[in-house]
């Protein structure tokens, strides 16, 4: 079922719920998310609704810094590649349009930045020991 484009909070919820439903079951990155989030999935999903609503719909409902909770995760390029793959396929399976394309671009950029920062802090810890 492809909907034209991402235009409402209901579209954001569909994207986030579908994406994280796949993430939770994924063999590579599912265990990392499930261990980190544990029983707090409803709160995490609510935060993700607000995050993507702010990014894509320019309705400023999210405040905070998305990177710190990810800073100490034991992840590498393969984990981010899988995240991007699942995210892109999820967007493509649900939406077509300018904001759908922006969502994919933002996802790739965010994954690249997170990986860079995680590796930076990991390297920094090695040099300070």
Automatic annotation (TrEMBL):
What InterPro entries does UniProt report for this protein, alphabetically? Globin-like_sf, Globin/Proto, Hemoglobin_trunc
**Which Gene3D superfamilies does the annotation name?**
Globins (1.10.490.10)
Methyltransferase keyword on record: no
The record's keywords, sorted A to Z, are: Heme, Iron, Metal-binding, Transport
Cite the GO molecular-function annotations of the record.
Answer: heme binding; metal ion binding; oxygen binding
Among CDD domains, the record links this protein to: TrHb3_P
The residues that hold heme are 44, 70
Q: Name one Pfam family in it.
A: Bac_globin
Taking the record's annotation, the residue ranges forming a coiled coil are none
The identity of this protein, by name, is Group III truncated hemoglobin
Q: Which organism is it from?
A: Flavobacterium frigoritolerans
């Amino acid at each position: 079922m492809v909907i034209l484009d991402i235009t409402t909070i209901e579209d954001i919820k569909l994207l986030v719920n579908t994406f994280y439903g796949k993430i939770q079951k994924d063999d590579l990155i599912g265990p990392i998310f499930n261990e980190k989030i544990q029983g707090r999935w409803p709160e995490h999903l609510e935060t993700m609704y607000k995050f993507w609503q702010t990014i894509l719909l320019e309705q400023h409902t999210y405040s905070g810094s998305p990177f710190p909770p990810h800073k100490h995760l034991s992840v590498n390029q393969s984990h981010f590649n899988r995240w991007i793959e699942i995210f892109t396929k999820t967007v493509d399976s649900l939406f077509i349009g300018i904001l759908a394309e922006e969502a994919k671009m933002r996802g790739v950029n965010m994954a690249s930045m997170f990986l860079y920062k995680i590796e930076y802090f990991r390297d920094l810890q090695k040099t300070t020991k």
